[in-house]
Amino acid sequence: MQLLSLNLGTVRPLMIDGRRIMTAIGKAPVAGPVAVGRLGLAGDEQADPSVHGGLDKAIYAWPGEHYAWWQAQRRERGTSLFDETLPAGFAGENLTLQGLDEQQVWVGDELHFPDCVLRVTQPREPCFKFNAVMGYAQAARDMVTSGRSGWYLAVQQPGTLEAGQPFELRAGSRSVGIAQALAGKRHKHLR
């Protein structure tokens, strides 16, 4: 398992349905080590701390393997004029991971990197901003129904992270899986 990309973003405006909305969903890859504190990555921002950020949602992880599926969704729905490759950070994730997905991760599991430890807290539940970034109105629903949501992490042991680092998954209590927790949210998005 590997950290493919480390992504940071700042709050900036996004036009959604003619309204100017402040968001930090647009993350971009960075090179070199980044400090990790209890509230997340140095230089990363969140626009709405009521739903993003804080101790239990300090960092957002996303399986890089999901990008091919999302590119296909955008093509099928006619929202993408080009068959472009979506860049790391496009879904708003801080960590683009390789070799780990929602079926393998449980609340309480820990990701051990060379210099820090992150604890899995919950799946991402997307909002209208994700629809806007993906370019179609049902993207949030597709995230939940497909199980391709990624998950939030708390910082168990501060340190640093850098793209390219390997990491190890260490099991927690294994009482609620990310896929199981996400399935519990599906009814909300199927209405």
Describe what this molecule looks like in 3D.
Residues 28-170 form the MOSC domain. Pfam families: MOSC (PF03473). The chain is an alpha+beta fold and 191 residues long. It has a single domain (2-190), classed as PK beta-barrel domain-like (M1 Pyruvate Kinase, Domain 3). Helices cover 19% and strands 30% of the residues. The chain has five helices and 13 strands. It has helices at 66-76, 128-134, 139-146, 178-183, 186-190; strands spanning 2-8, 12-16, 19-23, 28-29, 34-37, 40-41, 59-63, 95-98, 110-112, 117-123, 151-157, 159-161, 168-170. Strands 4-1-8-7-11-10-9-13 form an eight-stranded mixed β-sheet. It has a three-stranded antiparallel β-sheet with strand order 6-5-12, with no helix packed on it. It has a two-stranded antiparallel ribbon with strand order 2-3. The longest helix is centred in the middle third of the chain and has 11 residues, at 66-76. The radius of gyration is 16 Å and the shape is globular. The N and C termini lie far apart (36 Å).
